[in-house]
Each structure stands twice: as C-alpha cells, then as structure tokens.
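Crash report, auto-generated. Payload:
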Amino acid sequence: MIDSLFLINHSGDIFLEKHWKSVISRSVCDYFFEAKEKAVDPENVAPVLQTPHHYLISIYRDKIFFLSAIQTEVPPLFVIEFLHRVGDTFLDYFGECSETVIKDNVVIVYELLEEMLDNGFPLATESNVLKEMIKPPNILRSVVNTLTGGSNVGNTLPTGQLSNVPWRRAGVKYTNNEAYFDVIEEIDAILDKSGTTVFAEIQGVIEACVRLTGMPDLTLSFMNPRLLDDVSFHPCVRFKRWESERVLSFIPPDGNFTLMSYQVSSQNLVAIPVYVKQNISFLEAGSCGRLDITIGPKQTMGKTVEGLMVTVHMPKAVLTVNLTATQGTHTYDLATKVLVWDIGKLNPQKLPNLRGSLSMQPGAPKPEEYPSLNIDLKIQQLAISGLKVSRLDMYGEKYKPFKGVKYLTKAGKFQVRT
Amino acid sequence: MKEETRPCVIPGCFSARRHDDLKEMLDSNKDSLKLEAMKRIVAMIARGKNASDLFPAVVKNVACKNIEVKKLVYVYLVRYAEEQQDLALLSISTFQRGLKVQLISISAFFVKVSTVLKVKKQSYRFIFSHNKTSSFDFSLDPEQKDQLIEVIEKLLADKTTLVAGSVVMAFEEVCPERIDLIHKNYRKLCNLLIDVEEWGQVVIINMLTRYARTQFLNPNINETDSSFLFPCMRLFKSHSIALWFLSELFRAVSLPIEQSHDAALIYTAIRKILICCLTHVHVSCFSEVQYVVLQNVATMTIKRRGMFEPYLKSFYIRSTDPTQIKILKLEVLTNLANETNISTILREFQTYIKSMDKDFVAATIQAIGRCATNIGEVRDTCLNGLVQLLSNRDELVVAESVVVIKKLLQMQPEKHSDIIKHMAKLTDNIQVPMARASILWLIGEYCEHVPKIAPDVLRKMAKSFTNEEDIVKLQIINLAAKLYLTNSKQTKLLTQYVLNLAKYDQNYDIRDRARFIRQLIVPTEKSGALSKYAKKLFLALKPAPVLESPFKDRDHFQLGSLSHLLNAKAGGYQELPDWPEAAPDPSVRNVEVPEWTKCSSREKRKEKKVEKPFYSDSEGESGATESADSGNFSEEEVRKPERKSKQSKSDSESESESESESESSESESEDSEDSEAELKKKKKVVSGGGGSFSVMTWRPALKSYELLHRITGEGLSVEYCFSRQPFIPDANMVAVQVHFTNNSTSDTKSLHMEDVKLQSGMRVKEFPEIELLPAGETATAVMGIDFCDSTQTANFQLCTHTRKFFVSIQPPVGELMRPFFMTENEFKKEQGQLMGMNEITEKLTLDVKCRNEHAIVQKVTTAANLSRVPCGSDKECRFAGRTVTSSSLVLVTVATKDQGAAQLTVNCEKMVIGTMLVKDILLALTQ
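Recovered output after restart:
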C-alpha cells in the first residue's frame, strides 16, 4: 500500500519524510516538482503521477503537499482519503496544519504516523483512539512533563480499539453534560445572467458537539425526515433504525464530530434567498467599463440575510476600479484582480448597490469574457430546506443533559453568471 | 545549555562532534537527557538526514525504563534495523525481555522491528490475542508461509469486527489463491462487513468481489447468491471509499438486469452509487477526490449514459473549479449529450467559451466538435458557432476552432466552401502552427471548391516558407503537390520553388518529403510506374475522423483502481476473473450450526453480556433484530414506552414485538447470538422459497391489514402487508408478508393454509407450514398470490392444529403493480402511445399538507407501488410501474398548478386498473 510519505511546503522543500517499508529516496519527488512546475496553480497538479518505479499520489491542503509514494496497485481514492485523514489528525492535535507546527512537533507527528499506518496499511485512524495512545500537546502538560519527567505516551492500549464502539473512549466524565447540534446547510447554485436558476442544490451537514458522561445512547428525530433522500452518516449511527424509523440512533463519539451529511436533491425546488441585478460592461473605445450591482432579498423566509459578500474575479485588463457602495466596503486587489464587496446585513428597505467605472489598461482590447459573481451569505436560525429536528432523547445514563439545536444557512458555491 | 538541547537548532549538516554530543547524552543516566537526544535523532530521521552511525548508542537504550524513550528507540530501530541487521540481531534478547513487560503498544513495536529483521516470529499469538492485529512484512521464506496460512485461517474464523479487516488484508498478501479458506467464512464476512472500519471494508469488498467472480454464476444469466448483495446494500451507511468499490461490484452484476429477479434491488443500489458519486463531485471540497471520482464517472458515462442523464446538471462547471476538474466535467457532459439535451448542453458550452481560462476554452471547443460529430442534427449549428469563434480575438481560441472545424468539414465539404474561403483568409493572421497546418490541409484537400484562392494561398506560403514551423512546412509541400496535380498550369513554378526550398531545409524529414514528392508528381523519364497513380495517391477520398472520448477503452480496468486512472496496468494489478461457466458447489459456504439449546432467560442475559454483540444488527429483519442493537442498551424498558408512543405508524411488527418481548426473552436473546445462530433463525423465518428476500426490511410506509383479529383467532392474531418485494418463485405473483402473533398462553401448532377458493386464473403459492408457534412468539411468512391484475379476493382457510379460520385477502389496486424504471423520454414516448381511452384525467385540489412535491411523491408511492420518473420540471411528478401479471405499463402524472390545484393523469392499458388507481390516488392526495 503506502510506502512513503513526504510533506512538501509551498516553495518545494521536503520538510518531513516517513517510510513504512523500505526507504524510498527523496529524489522520487523530482517528478512531482516537474509536474508542479508545469501547473500554474498548486490546485492544478494532477493528484496521481506515474514515475518509472513508483506512483505518486498527492493532495494539497493548508499550503502543504502531502505526497505519498506507492509501488503497487491501490485504489487512488483510498490513498487520498487517508492523506486527508492525516491532515485532519494534525489539525485535531495541533489546532492547525502548517509547516511550522509540524516542524515544532516532529516527534509527535512521527509517533502519530507510526500508529496510523502499519506496513503501509491504515491502522488506527480514529482520533479518539489515537489520543489515548499519544496525548496531544498542551502547555500545562509540557510544563508538568519537564518538571516530573512524565511522558506523552499513553501506557495502556486504548480501550476504544478493543470495544465494539471504537469511536468512543471509555470513562468519559463531565460536570456539565451537554449535547449541541448544528444543522448547517449550504446552497450550491448557478444563476444565469437573467437571474433564472441554472442549477441549485442544498448540501447539509449536522455537526455535533457532545460532552456527555459515560456511555449515552442518543436518539435524534426529525419533523420531516423524508426530505432527506440522500444521506451519509458517521459510523456510529445505526443504519437499520434510520431505514425503518427514520430516526438517528447512536452512541456518540466524545467531542466534536460530523453526525451526518445530506443532500436535498436538485429535483426539489431550492429556495434562493437573494436576487442579484448586475450590469458589467466594457466599452469598445476609451479603455473603461461600467459596473452596477444591486442585491435584494428573494426567498428569505422572513429572516435577515447576514454576512453578505460579493467576490468578482475581474479580467486581467482591468487596472483599477472607481466604485461607490451605498452600503459596506469594497476592496480591489491589483495583483490578483479580485474585487471584494463586503456588504454585511441586507436591509430590505434600502437595497445595497455598488456602481462606478472600471479603468482598463490603455490599448488593451476589450475583454471578451465577463466575470462571474460569487456570492457569500449567511442566514441564522434557518435551514433553507425546511429540515427541523423534533427531539433528542437519551438512554443508558441517568442524568439529564443540556440539549440545543442551531440552524444556519450559508451560501456554498453560489455563482451568478454575467 | 538550553540552546543545545532544543531539537530545532539542529543545523543542516552534522559534524562528528555533534554526534558525539548525542552519544554522550544517550549514555548518560538521566532519562530526560536520553529523551532529548532521542527526540533530536527522530527529528533528524524526519528530515531525511542519515543517523545510522548512532545505531550502537541507540540500541543500548532499548532496555530503558522510560516508556517514551523506549518508544522512540523502537521508532529508530524500525527505520534502521534493516540496514544494520547484525547489530540489531545482537540485541534481540533485550527486545524479548521487553516483551515481558505488559505494555502492548511497545510489544507491537517489537514485532515490527523483528519483522524488519525477518526474525521468526513466535509472538503471533501474543499479539493477535491483543487484537493489535496488523500486517507483517510478508516477504518471508516459503517455509514460513504454511505457518502463516495456518494463523490466518485461525484468525479468519474470528468473529470480531476488529480483526476482520487486518486478517483479510493479510490473506490478500500471503495467499490470495487459497480461496478455499474463505468458503466457510464467506457469510460471516458479509455480515460483519458493515461494522468493520472503513479501511478494512475496502479490502474485504475487494476480496469478496473476486470471490463472487469465481464462485457464483453471472447474475445476468442466473440467479445470484443474493446474500452477497445484501451486505452491500446495507453498506450504504457512510464509508465513502468502500462505496466506491461497489460500483465495480455492480458493474460485475451489470446491466441488462431487467431479466434478473433482483432488478428492483439492483436499481436502488445503482441509484445509491450514483448519488454517492455525485455527492463526491459536489460536496467534497477536496479537488483530488473530485478528480478521481470524475475520472471514473467519465468512464461509466460512455456505456451507461442513461444512468447519469438525470443528473446532468450536477456536472455544470463553475468558474472557480480548477482547470483539470473543469476538463473532466466537460468530458462527462460531452459523453452525456444526446438529441434531447444537446440544446441545453450547447447553451452551457456557450457560457464556457467566454471563460477566462484559455485551456478550458480550448477543451470546450473540442467538446463542441465532438457533440457535432456524434449528433448529426446540431452539426450545422455547431459549425456556425465555431465559425463565429474564428473572429475571436484570442489566438488560441481561433486555432482550436480551426482544428475542430477542419474535422467537421471533412464530413461534408461540398456545402461549406464559403467556410473554407473564410479560413483561407485567416492564414494572414493566425500564427499557431497547428491551426495554420489545418487550414493548409483543408485548402489542399478541397482545392476544387476554392479554385481561385488556393493558388494564391500557396503563393503567400511560398514567400514565408522559410519562417514556418515544421508541421506547416510539410503541409505547404502537401498543398503544393495537390495543386500541381489539379491545376498544374498556374502552380507549376510555385511548386518547383517550394520543393527547391524544402530540398535545403534543415529538417531531414522535410528534405525527404520534398524529394519523395518531386519523384512522384514531376514526370521524368526515370520516374517509375508510381507517378501514374500520383493523383490517386494524393487525392484519394479520406475517411472522416471519428472524434472519440479518451475514456472509451478504459473500462477493461477495474473502476476505481489506479490502473484505470492511469490507463496503464499498474504493478500488482489483478484482472477480475470471468464468471465461471458452471456454478461451483454452493454448499461449501454452509456453516455447521451448533446445537441450539434452550436455557433460561437469565442465563441468556448473562451470556449476552459476555459476548460482544455487533454494534449494528447483522441480519435483515428490522423489527426483531432491532433488539440486537439493544444489546448495547442497559435498560431495555426505557426504550419500550417510547416505542409505543411511536405507534402512529402502526407498524404491526413493532407492536407485536414489544408484546412478545415482555412475555419471553426468547426471540430477543436469539438475536444477540452470533451469526450462526442468525443463520438458523433465518431458516426459521419461513418463506415461500424466496431465500433472503423474505428478510427484507419492513418499511414503515407499508400499510398492514388485519387478517385475523386476536379475539376471533382465540389468541392468534394475523396481519398481512404487501411487502413490495419481488416474489422469487414466481415473478407474476404479488408477495404478501403474513405476520403471526401468538397471544395466547398455549402453543399453536402446524399453522398452514387450506381450501383456497379463487376466481378463475388466479393462483396462490402457499407459505410453508409453520410447525410450532410457541406462546408469545411471532413468526413471519411470505406467500405469493397471482391476482390476475384484478382486485378480486383470495379466500382460504387458515388452519392450526385445533381450529380453522376463514380469511380473505383483497389487494388494493396499487399493490398490483411493481415499480418500473424509465427515463423522462421513455415516459413521454410511452405516454404518447397510451392516449384516448387509456388515459384518465382528473382535476383535484390538493390537501393543504401535501402541496409540496415531496409530499405528493410520498402519498402516491404509498398508495401505489410505483417508482418515480426523473423529471425536468418541478411542476410535475411522474411515476411508472408495470402490472404484476400482464406487465402492462401504468403511468401516473401529477401536474400541480397554483393554489393547490392539480391534475392527475393515469395512462394504463387496463382501463379498470386505471380507473381504480385514479380513485385511490385522488383519495390519498386530497385527504
């Protein structure tokens, strides 16, 4: 399976290598650097590369390339998924996944990698299991360790790994027992020039933060579960009960986790919370253009739209912009040619408007492409698909937990074509 | 001092003195110093620096008391033991001493080190017993292989999910050819699959796929061992990677599946896979995942366009996608294009052409070209669009259009001489060599269409000949030769000039070509017989190119594999074996059922605690097995009231279940037994021969009807429902699931049916006799009734050992059909054929509660066993099905209008069924 892992930073330095079987020379990365050179964006480097003796599968996240070298046939998704899991684990342990943090904690990183992959095959990848074997660093512990000579290494084999609920560790204790669920929905949409929906879809996740003592068994039920026709769950959810009763029954992992993700299919009608009236034009002569954008509420279900933001990737020829906004602030990055208009709260009485002129590079021909607008927005206390949690019950423990559900609608990949 | 000990200050190169420093620290008595030294060494290894000369100093510390030091020493050893074999072997005794310490994580490390040393392992059992199973370095001597296989065989028999993944992995590495080891464990593995962690699932599914290919007949031809499909169905829980593999599985099962009994099942499965693919395309913010998934989707769309067509819009491109994703999505869109959706796709393409990403624009132009060649009707539209692009300002765009136009024109050049003229003019401006070459080729090939322009172009080209790229030069020679043959009067001198220039070109290929062409076309006394045929040679009719998807021939690689992605066989890639000709003996998979002894419920409970129940249940029955889940619950009773409150769904089973629970713990304890017991239980659930189908889930939407009330039945209550599953022994029968509950205090014996009175044409397949139904127990059986597509009743007597009850089953019309999957187009076509008398239309006002689409779908599918037909408009819901006996189509359309007004249309060949169905659906929608 996976033979070696190289971590490579943005500028192309290998700052960590780890081998599981025999050692593969780091010169194998040269093929990767070649491909990276060719691709303009780091995102455009092909994830799978073939070299004479090895196959290189890489991912790019948090400005680090995770590059794995493999020698034999293995499903590429398998490796990619694993590499992301490594990244997630770093994030979980150190709070961020950056070059400096990995360099500072190189010993823990090494120990983690040793546990996560055994002879090239993933072994312990559940964060709860790992945390029992290798304790995450924190200031208090490092102080105590230097004073007492204690260690970061757990000296018992994690109980979770041996039980039939490997995602939960035994003996969890809290003084405040609480369970919070966030229903977060993202609208993915493409609107065309006239404002009609070309494509729209809702992607939802339920993020949970559960801090409960002991081994609680939770049941979460929805008012309208039939809305969700396409779901995927955290492994803890009992699938059978979902199939037969449409309730989520599970023994939760400790702490934060994604309980389920769902998709409300494009067959259903998706409410689009805002409309955008835009007019961007470039004049044939005189190297200038005009821009006029107005945003108004459409189907907001009576809630306020917040955190409204419009991002426009301008054509290369646009030098500067001279715009006035009735609300919010706008910035134009000269290097990347990105115009950002941060509006904030949408006031239905007074619609925000941004208008003005664009000045173009003199002599440059009129751009043929028109930039599309990317919209970002947030609506609190609303799940746009209409999903509602009806109740949460707990079995298996005597105490009464504190429960809470929050809804949030966000714009995902929300694009308006011009 | 403090500076010295920080690992981060280690400089790029190590002097010998530095290493001495480390050695000193390692030799010291203080653990903290040792730890610091080890940390620095590990940091060195991580940076790829060589630390092998420290080996002797490090290995001494293997006996160190401090766990952390010890662990780091092992980390070091794993890395260097192979290089320093002799030294490591010397210290093996120290390692073994370390084993005695009850520290499992450390002893696991020991095993790792010793495998690196290829030391014979005595410690398998020790390690395995702690479930810290993992793979070993399996490149061992052959004599050890047998021993290893023995261990694997033992471990395969293990019933815990924790071991399964690792063991199968080991099996695949050591002895994949020993398929006989799997037989006995096959069913168990299928059952365990859902609870194994995701990495293990991938390996197990892979192995099972291979197993199925060698052990079962091709399901297209024959019935498959459906139990294999079941675990897979249930897998659709979460693990995304594992899911991916299923697509391969279903490719193996493959279409055409209409003939197969499992049709409905497989359709649902395939739908699930699709959704999973699409979710990956969308949700995943990781472009790498998208990349891999789209590669696979692109391959699948070539053969199974229909499957993906409803999801066309999911592949629309956003301006923020990375280029490689855009190009893959484009590929998928092109593969999906057909006569009906081409206009939408072309409209999308038009937007894409305006994109700023020029590589993407070029790919779009090529995609348009491909659509135009594949779909004749839009060829002219595409061509016009492309010609317009010729006046684009961006040179790359123009060049790409020229190349594509060239290919298109080759199909019908006569009609388009003006386009060729237009392109001839472009030679003045276009600089991209490929485009210039294409134009020249076009002019040469069709010079008779542009007799005046062609020589002029040649004149211009002759002037700039020396400055052209090689491919352009070759085409100039080509053009000259063709013109010489058709129009030698005007071009003789020009041709000579060009050939002379080429004679002294730097490129040998061009010199060669010039010489060859001169010999061929300019007749001299020496020229051979060939020159007579020169015209035929040059102006032969060329076949038009076929524009094909680059993914066309990829499907011989297993989907999802690395080889598929690279389109080249990767090392270690195993082809899937073909289905066997004759089915191997299925009995090898039978597991001996241990003698089932009854014991008191208290004992049972104790046993339950000792034995780890599977987290989720491992067989199909929902109701009864639900309590297997509850193996995890400490308080059974807490759950029960809650359940009762949920009775609104009136699922008869859960009611009877909770009743039975209170009286006896038999059924419940049974479930918590291991899979073998469940196998036995499976036998106990009597079916009409339906195999595993009888254990399909009991969906809450199913309405159950009373067959025999508890009072009249003297304690025996019977309910039935239409399970909506295909009835395996006879496809023309409707499956009726009958649920018996013995509420009395005495056992009921020999439950069977007798004296069936039927209308002519109707048939019944009785359920097998239930020999014993103990007090408080429940049992389920499946019978099949052929209602001849009518709602006539089936009357029969239900007999026990003491009594006979007259009962009758009358089906609602909606149960006389089975879902039929069709696309929107097929639906419209079929609907067009079922007009006039076969069409019944009814206006209605929708109930306030079911004005959204979702509610309508729910109501209609509850009322009738129909499947949803994908539909582009959101004002209409369409459903399709076939009647069970005569397979006549039943098409239902619900078109909604403003304020709850709606129109219901039913098209059905059988008018009686149509009328009744309209009534039922009307009732469902208006109530």
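Post-recovery validation: Chain A touches chain B through 118 residues (CB under 8 Å).
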